[in-house]
Amino acid sequence: MSSREVVLARVRRALADVPRGEGPEDPPVPRDYDIEHGSRTAAETIDLLAENLADYRAIVHRTDAAGLPALLARLLAERGARTVVVPPGLPDHWLAATDAELLPDTAMSTPHQLDAVDSVVTGCAVAIAETGTVVLDAGPDQGRRRITLVPDHHLCVVRVPDQVVGSVPQALPRLAPDRPLTWISGPSATSDIELDRVEGVHGPRVLEVILVGR
Question: I need a labelling partner for 180 at 20 to 30 A (CA). Which of 16, 148, 174, 200 fits?
Answer without folding.
Answer: 200
